[in-house]
Design goal:
Radius of gyration: 27 Å
Number of strands: 12
CATH architecture of the largest domain: 3-Layer(aba) Sandwich
CATH topology of the largest domain: Rossmann fold
Order of helices and strands: HEHEHEHEEHEHEHEHEHEHEEH
Shape: elongated
Largest sheet: 6 strands, parallel
Structural class: alpha/beta
CATH superfamily of the largest domain: Response regulator
CATH class of the largest domain: Alpha Beta
Number of helices: 11
Distance between the termini: 77 Å
Strand order of the largest sheet: 2-1-3-4-5-11
Helix content: 40-55%
Amino acid sequence: MRKLWLVLLTTILVACSNNDALNVQVEKNESKPIILGTDVYVIIDNKADERTLEAMTRAAREAGERFGFEIKVIQPTGADDLVKQINSLKGITGIGGAVIAAKGVPAGEAIAELASTGIPIVGIGTNSAAVLPYGGIGFVGVTDEGIGKAIALKFKALGLKKLICVATQGKDSEREQRICGSVADYLSGVETVSVKVTNKNSPEILRKAIAGDKEIDCMLVMNTALMSTVNQTKGLITRDLSVGLIGYEESREREVRSGELLFMTDNQDAMQARYAVDMLGTFTTTAGIIGNGTPVLTGPDIVTAAKVDAVSLSRKDFNR
């Protein structure tokens, strides 16, 4: 019996020894993962105003406290500087991740190079296509399709049927046309008119477009710069049109309260920064990915008379 126990014990020891050797071998063959630090770089859109920059900075830092992140905010001066700032993050010691408002292929390619070093990246803003296909673990913000769908459903819920979409002629025209197209996917009647903000004849051009179609009962203004043209046009027509505005201006909150504006939209930029940092922290602590590689939408939040006062207070407190 004693000999049998000795044989069993010897067999067990040999098996354990073999397993230990096997484990060591596996560890030697594994690639060494990058050691992430606690510095998180948040690159914000160069067009963000001071209020938005402050709101996003506060939100990112509040979210970062939960994970022990040190938030470092960067605001590039333009597209070229954005690429430069992304490239500058390569090789920085102590970096734990990056949150980037990126636009365009050059920024996407820079993100791909940074992601290849093992740095987790979350995109924010309006262009998920400049982040997700280039190795970003997620995106928090708005998409053109999402904006169009939300607005179309709002008009539809109010029983409005035919929309005239007022867009600009210029560098933002392509994106505005794309959003108008998305609205058309969910609202049966959509007509788009593009005008120049600086053209004195723009109100008349818009008036003729409205006069030419008696079924038009609502108007979507694609950016705040067009509001002067639209208000001049409203003075030239007798028809009362419901008007929605893409974008948010504190100076137009009164118009929303009074019903002159049906709504404004808010992309909730502070929420983007907060959720993006939270997404990074979730990934680095649990390897979990929020959204499973699809955009996590923060908007557009459609701000009507019913909620404009609450939104106004929240914006003043830098919470949006």
